[in-house]
Write a structure and sequence with these properties.
This protein is mostly helical and 289 residues long. It is built from 15 helices and 2 strands.
Amino acid sequence: MPRKPPVWKEAMPTFNGLIDSAKNEADVQSACSYIKQAVVESYPDTPPSRKKPMNSIREAIRERYPALKEKSPHEGAPFPYYFTDAGKGKVERWEHLAIKHLKEDWNLKDDWVEEKSDTITPSPQPETGFDIFTEVGLGGEELTAVKQAIGDDDVNEWVKQALLQRAKAINALHERFNEDLSLVPSDELMNDKKHRTNPNASRELASRAVRAIKHWNYSQPEHKWCITNKLISELTGVTPKAIAKVVEGMGIEDYNQMQGLTPVVNRMTKAAVGSISDVVSIADMLGID
């Protein structure tokens, strides 16, 4: 999901609208207080981080309302401009009043100005409507279907029930994954439907199969098996692909190497004693010795 833009960027369209519709300097000052409050909310604990957005806001104002450098300070300039020569070079110009009110003590300098302004108490931020459908990205046919289903019901209650249902499902899944299966017989783990999609059950079965094969190798040293995913699959009924995901950390490769075993050995052992499932079974095994 894309990162949500900072508060000040979301407030820019409203700020531009307030500036464009301002009738006097008080309106301009109020609009500037609004956007500065949004900047503060974006970076409440890191004042230095406010410098860049404030520069961007002033730049946006200058793009919409370019400075008038040809007019004399003795000439009248139409609202919303004011005369200033502050900044580097003391360039005399008429600038939008917003530049005058977009200075703060945590942001002393901009392209033109190098002076500290009085702190302006931010005006209350206009309330904006919260649309849950927009917030969660619903639109088009999906939005139509949802609204049709909700009808005149309380949207908040729908959201509440959806969250509760989702939470219960996830919590139940976590309980399954964290369930201790060491005392559940292998036969049940292999045949009970409730365990078939549980990776925890697959790992438990694989662990028992590895233990059973090692026991065989210890008691039948002349007919050892090389432990492979395919061999474990034959004993557990779990697919080799699924086995590959759960045997990590069992030290199988180290064991085979230490015993000098390779998959080729299994052909000779099978020829001598039959398939692994003929001589080794984990059906009655538990996860503990």
